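User: I'll paste a sequence; please echo it back and then give the predicted structure.

Assistant: Echoing your sequence first, then the prediction.
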Amino acid sequence: MPTLIVFALVGLAAQLVDGALGMAYGITSTSLLVFAGINPATASASVHLAEVGTTLASGASHWRFGNVDWKLVLKLGVPGAIGAFLGATLLSALSTENAAPFMSGILLALGVYVLLRFSVRPPKVATARTSPHGARFLSPLGLVAGFVDASGGGGWGPVSTPALLGAGRTAPRTVVGSVSASEFLVALAASAGFLVGLGHEVLDPSTIGGLLIGGVLAAPLAAWLVTRIPAPVLGSAVGGVIILTNARTLLRAADASGAVTAAVYAVILVLWALAIGAAVTRLRRSRTEDAATPVDQEQPVSTG
């Protein structure tokens, strides 16, 4: 029971992040599991098995609210599933000693991306409810995002969502809803790859069940959280946590001295504080500009 509660708290924390940001459930939960000493391949496998349930619920919710473009789901999700199966197979074949720094390197890079993604300029916003992108753009994107997601323990959202939003041709709600729905295919394929490569014996029901329970319980709280904490500030904070936890693993793998470790932590903390400060400053500037913009200014009526 204590183990189940611990992993439920991990799932709850990860879902709070994902529900508020629209991404980072996998990289947050995997980072925490690896930090707690779980084998990297087992950590990623457990997260993806739990995600089979959470992504199904998330995709169904987005479909109910009309946020899903099913053509986008198939063009992105099928290549993503192929990439996820390959990534899971690769990670399963690596030894624990080699897998830990490999996964932490990917997670750290994604953490840096999340940090910059929410502390610097946001992407362009479009209004199209169906994606105009074809397989030439979506297939490679899905393949890479799926591979990174399975081999790194997370990354489907951080890789595919910003790429689609950055293109500025599809409405954000459609991008988020379609990416969430397609993630079910990715989680299913990654889980199959891990079960083939690892077998079910190494998987702990308490870990998977705890992540799933925590994620389900956190869903309504995450909806409330997003109304209280601005996404740029929360995203910058979470990005720093991911960087710190995975930097610790990489420093240990490199047998870094105490002085080097302290110096690296100091640099990370300073850059983290600057990123959060930049996010807060940009948020305040945006609110000031919005407050200065006339809202009730009447426009002349044309009688043409």
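The CA atoms of residues 69 and 130 lie 6 Å apart. Residues 298-304 have pLDDT under 50 and may be disordered.
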